[in-house]
Amino acid sequence: MKTLVVGSGFVGRAIARHLLDHGDEAVLASRTPPFADGAPVTPDWVPLDVAVPGAFAETLHRTAADTVVLVHGPSDVTWCESHPEEAMAGHAGAARMVAEAAGDRRVVFISTDNVFDGTAVTSSESTPTHPANAYGRAKRAAEDVLSALPGAVLLRVSLIYGWETADTPKWLNFFASCVHRLRAGETVAAPYDQWTTPVLIDDVAEATRALVTTATAPKLLHLGGPDRISRADWAAGIAAALGVPRERVTAEPRAHGRYAHRPASTCLSSELFATHPATAALRPRPVQEATRLLLGRHLPPTVRSTA
Ligand SMILES: NC(=O)c1ccc[n+]([C@@H]2O[C@H](COP(=O)([O-])OP(=O)(O)OC[C@H]3O[C@@H](n4cnc5c(N)ncnc54)[C@H](OP(=O)(O)O)[C@@H]3O)[C@@H](O)[C@H]2O)c1
Q1: Distance, CA 90 to ligand 1 centroid (Å)?
Q2: Whose CA is nearest to atom 2 of ligand 1?
Q3: 8-state DSSP, 54
Q4: Name one Pfam family in it (predicted).
Q5: What spacing in Å lies between the alpha carbon of 247 and ligand 1's midpoint?
Q6: How far is the CA of 243 from the centre of ligand 1 (A)?
Q7: pLDDT digits (tens), the chain, 307 positions
Q8: Residue whose C-alpha is closest to residue 222's, from 156, 277, 139, 140
């Protein structure tokens, strides 16, 4: 089975590598080549602007892919807020190109918790959507287009985290940003009033592969981690795991920082994930366990706390 993974950023690269690691074929596609992040496996890559008419159809034909994962940008919530039309074209416009060409192929669309306004403590598949920002509106519009496809799966994922190197040429995911800044001796200011259910990138890749390969997939599925945590508490936990003084994390209101455009509660729960045959065996990891796993993989033991 060959999967065309549209978007070769943080999430797309991890999904493509996970597919390759499990004996499947995967090819990445984006406008510019993927960042060489030093990981041992480099998936094949083809150039594609998915929003350009005809480009996705041509790439699908050329790669002869059986299945598709859509995990392209724009992904920056703050950028989308100041570029709402580009955000809409990048997601809903691109979804139309995919819908025209995908036929009955399985298409897994990595969607977001930002389709909700964040006023509920947590949102499940049956919670009515109500995006409160341009990013959420664009992703929700793309969901609408793609849901008409027979093979589409809308996988709404909470905030994704994992290891990224400090020289990654984009805004790092929250975990990686905290680790590198705390290790560099900086302080981290994080909101005490922005709540997430963070999910480890490995668990996202595993769930995506399960949905790509299963014979019967749900049309809509939520994936959040098992912990509901504020960014300030999460950052404090990372500091503790690194053995860095707690005072280097300062808690601030969401409205003061980079997270001003994010809903207060970007938390997802699922009525299906634990019971659907495609995902029932999967166990998204708690934040503390995943933190130990990531630091153990990427840092020498001397810089990790033994606490
Ligand atoms: N990261 C998270 O926490 C999270 C959570 C839920 C959902 N998601 C979704 O996952 C997707 C990817 O997130 P990410 O963190 O991996 O973002 P990212 O690191 O910014 O990567 C985005 C990728 O999309 C490509 N891209 C952008 N516009 C494109 C276009 N028109 N045609 C083809 N490729 C295009 C980018 O490369 P070029 O610019 O070179 O084309 C890049 O490779 C986003 O759609 C986001 O909504 C992410």
Answers
A1: 10
A2: 160
A3: T
A4: RmlD_sub_bind
A5: 34
A6: 33
A7: 999 999 999 999 999 999 999 999 999 999 999 998 888 778 999 999 999 999 999 999 999 999 999 999 999 999 999 999 999 999 999 999 999 999 999 999 999 999 999 999 999 999 999 999 999 999 999 999 999 999 999 999 999 999 999 999 888 999 999 999 999 999 999 999 999 999 999 999 999 999 999 999 999 999 999 999 999 999 999 999 999 999 999 999 987 777 877 788 999 999 999 999 999 999 999 999 999 999 999 998 766 664 4
A8: 156
Q: How large is the C-alpha radius of gyration of the chain?
A: 19
DSSP 149: S
> Ligand 1: distance of its center to the CA of 8 in Å?
7
Please say whether the beta carbons of 67 and 30 come within 8 A. no
Residue 208 CA to residue 199 CA, distance in Å, equals 13
Tell me the domains of the chain and their CATH numbers.
2-160+199-223 (3.40.50.720), 161-196+227-267+285-303 (3.90.25)
CA dihedral (144, 211, 9, 290) positive or negative: positive
If you take atom 37 of ligand 1, which residue's CA is the nearest one?
Answer: 30
**Residue nearest to ligand 1 atom 1, measured at CA:** 160
Mutate to test the pocket of ligand 1, among 5, 11, 114 (most ligand atoms within 8 A of CB): 11
Q: Which of ligand 1's atoms lies nearest the C-alpha of 91?
A: 45
Residue 109 phi, psi dihedral angles, 5° rounding: -100, 120
The H-or-E segment that residue 242 falls in is helix 231-242
CA 249 to chain CA centroid, Å, is 25
Q: Are strands 44-47 and 67-70 parallel, antiparallel or unpaired?
A: unpaired
Give the binding-site residues of ligand 1, using a 6 Å CB cut-off: 6-12, 30-32, 48-51, 71-73, 75, 90, 94, 110, 112, 139, 157, 159-160, 170
Structure tokens at 256: 């003061």
Structure tokens at 60: 């699908």
